[in-house]
Amino acid sequence: MARLAADAPTKGGFSFDLCQRNEMLLKKGMHLPTFRKTGTTIVGLVFQDGVILGADTRATEGPIVADKNCEKIHYMAPNIYCCGAGTAADTEAVTDMVSSQLQLHRYATGRESRVVTALTLLKSHLFSYQGHVSAALVLGGVDITGPHLHTVYPHGSTDTLPFATMGSGSLAAMAVFESKFREGLTKEEGIKLVSEAICSGIFNDLGSGSNVDVCVITKGHTEYLRNHQLPNPRTYVSSRGYNFVKGHTEVLSTKITPLKSKVEVAEVDAMEE
Amino acid sequence: MERLAIHHANGMEMVAVKDSAISENGTERTLYPYVTGTSVIGMKYKDGVILAADMGGSYGSTLRYKSVERIKHIGKHSLLGASGEISDFQEILRYLDELILYDNMWDDGNSLGPKEVHNYLTRVMYNRRNKFNPLWNSLVLGGVKNGQKYLGMVGMIGTHFEDNHVATGFGNHLARPILRAEWREDLSFEEAVKLLEKCLLVLLYRDRSAINKFQIAKITDEGVTISQPYALKTYWGFSAFQNPSKGAEGSW
């Protein structure tokens, strides 16, 4: 039998107490609420001076686009940023949590945060939740030991790579990287390649779309290029747009009611503390 | 799947699982493919149509056959490439053999072009799917007749369409983005081969059932050429691959 929440000691990690009851409810036909996923294209690559991260900006809820211009590149530390794919709430929460932990660690140690610290915090959290926290991340940053790029999977495994893609558009973006990546790219070449990979995801994957976000991290300096490219602008049938000048619509009658007479304005003392 | 219980002499029950679904009136249908070929990519270029495929036949997760020719020429004007079940591809080749034979027997100076063969294949695939017994293939049909280039695709459920560049299987996800970005109407043969090899290399890196042994086939008004098998050069020399977890112990 499952223990009451008040009795169970807080051990951390996933609590399997309610799993039996959930399964029984599913069998009876209860539907779980759908998650807002970020069916996504996120990429990262290492260039000669540091790391460049890129992401699209579409958040989907099943077949519907929930947010046309969301931010998928999350702040971890001044020198570390993290792109997130998977369930939007999970990526937000887990990156926020590790970001706070890194800040506290910076106060305790008095040093700049290292990418491996963020990596270890993320992977141990995700592993203890056995893949139920659906966050697939591309973590990149530059610290005292150099530039680093890692991918983190929902079950807690990590890879260290020179270039990486995650999300539903990862194959389209990886096709671009595999054919065009080389070591020692300059900053302009790197940004161009990252934008190309994200555009490949945007135009060839249905779960990705809208705009391209880029983040360039080098030693001592980070540039967050929000909406670096807008390849899907809102277009109108007429190139001049619409302009309705007074006089286009025939006015039948006019009645003006001043509202001041309906509303009473009185001087009252401010609320006391 | 039905299970037959076979009783042994010593009373032990051995259960045999049947791989086909035999219902009361005795019909059978394909449930899953066994020996499969991976992607085929094709595109039109200036002088005709060019197709490429690797030569692997996988038996589940084993690489069983390494010299499977998955691109064949059909009649004078067409090339057929197939991914999916190899035995079904061989059956399709037999159907097409018969079709071309009857066409030749007419001896009327006319010959079946790629459009006609594509239509025939669509009808065959769709009819089989309607009987719940599909030919488990994705077919790429390319050809040139009287200077007109044609490139089309038929799937195992009968979906068919025509396009300037096509890909089956994994090629849809990995090769299509590259082709959409870089294909042009007036590619020369060398440029077309380079573009195809770019796609084949990405597939080799990222598709687990691809092998490094390819055939490229081209068809023009002059005729069909299917190349000898050859391998692509892969690059593994990234410095990051030398000691990947140097900065992060415990990851790989």
UniProtKB/TrEMBL annotation, chain A:
<dbReference type="GO" id="GO:0019774">
    <property type="term" value="C:proteasome core complex, beta-subunit complex"/>
</dbReference>
<dbReference type="GO" id="GO:0005634">
    <property type="term" value="C:nucleus"/>
</dbReference>
<comment type="function">
    <text>Component of the proteasome, a multicatalytic proteinase complex which is characterized by its ability to cleave peptides with Arg, Phe, Tyr, Leu, and Glu adjacent to the leaving group at neutral or slightly basic pH. The proteasome has an ATP-dependent proteolytic activity.</text>
</comment>
<comment type="subunit">
    <text>Component of the proteasome complex.</text>
</comment>
<dbReference type="GO" id="GO:0043161">
    <property type="term" value="P:proteasome-mediated ubiquitin-dependent protein catabolic process"/>
</dbReference>
<dbReference type="InterPro" id="IPR029055">
    <property type="entry name" value="Ntn_hydrolases_N"/>
</dbReference>
<dbReference type="InterPro" id="IPR000243">
    <property type="entry name" value="Pept_T1A_subB"/>
</dbReference>
<keyword id="KW-0647">Proteasome</keyword>
<dbReference type="GO" id="GO:0004298">
    <property type="term" value="F:threonine-type endopeptidase activity"/>
</dbReference>
<feature type="active site" description="Nucleophile">
    <location>
        <position position="40"/>
    </location>
</feature>
<dbReference type="GO" id="GO:0005829">
    <property type="term" value="C:cytosol"/>
</dbReference>
<keyword id="KW-0888">Threonine protease</keyword>
<comment type="similarity">
    <text>Belongs to the peptidase T1B family.</text>
</comment>
<keyword id="KW-0539">Nucleus</keyword>
<keyword id="KW-0378">Hydrolase</keyword>
<keyword id="KW-0645">Protease</keyword>
<dbReference type="InterPro" id="IPR001353">
    <property type="entry name" value="Proteasome_sua/b"/>
</dbReference>
<comment type="subunit">
    <text>The 26S proteasome consists of a 20S proteasome core and two 19S regulatory subunits. The 20S proteasome core is composed of 28 subunits that are arranged in four stacked rings, resulting in a barrel-shaped structure. The two end rings are each formed by seven alpha subunits, and the two central rings are each formed by seven beta subunits. The catalytic chamber with the active sites is on the inside of the barrel.</text>
</comment>
<keyword id="KW-0963">Cytoplasm</keyword>
<dbReference type="Pfam" id="PF00227">
    <property type="entry name" value="Proteasome"/>
</dbReference>
<dbReference type="InterPro" id="IPR016050">
    <property type="entry name" value="Proteasome_bsu_CS"/>
</dbReference>
<dbReference type="InterPro" id="IPR023333">
    <property type="entry name" value="Proteasome_suB-type"/>
</dbReference>
UniProtKB/TrEMBL annotation, chain B:
<keyword id="KW-0963">Cytoplasm</keyword>
<keyword id="KW-0647">Proteasome</keyword>
<dbReference type="GO" id="GO:0043161">
    <property type="term" value="P:proteasome-mediated ubiquitin-dependent protein catabolic process"/>
</dbReference>
<dbReference type="Pfam" id="PF00227">
    <property type="entry name" value="Proteasome"/>
</dbReference>
<comment type="subunit">
    <text>The 26S proteasome consists of a 20S proteasome core and two 19S regulatory subunits. The 20S proteasome core is composed of 28 subunits that are arranged in four stacked rings, resulting in a barrel-shaped structure. The two end rings are each formed by seven alpha subunits, and the two central rings are each formed by seven beta subunits. The catalytic chamber with the active sites is on the inside of the barrel.</text>
</comment>
<protein>
    <recommendedName>
        <fullName>Proteasome subunit beta</fullName>
    </recommendedName>
</protein>
<dbReference type="GO" id="GO:0019774">
    <property type="term" value="C:proteasome core complex, beta-subunit complex"/>
</dbReference>
<dbReference type="InterPro" id="IPR029055">
    <property type="entry name" value="Ntn_hydrolases_N"/>
</dbReference>
<comment type="function">
    <text>Non-catalytic component of the proteasome.</text>
</comment>
<dbReference type="InterPro" id="IPR023333">
    <property type="entry name" value="Proteasome_suB-type"/>
</dbReference>
<dbReference type="InterPro" id="IPR050115">
    <property type="entry name" value="Proteasome_alpha"/>
</dbReference>
<comment type="similarity">
    <text>Belongs to the peptidase T1B family.</text>
</comment>
<keyword id="KW-0539">Nucleus</keyword>
<dbReference type="GO" id="GO:0005829">
    <property type="term" value="C:cytosol"/>
</dbReference>
<dbReference type="InterPro" id="IPR016050">
    <property type="entry name" value="Proteasome_bsu_CS"/>
</dbReference>
<dbReference type="GO" id="GO:0005634">
    <property type="term" value="C:nucleus"/>
</dbReference>
<dbReference type="InterPro" id="IPR016295">
    <property type="entry name" value="Proteasome_beta4"/>
</dbReference>
<dbReference type="InterPro" id="IPR001353">
    <property type="entry name" value="Proteasome_sua/b"/>
</dbReference>
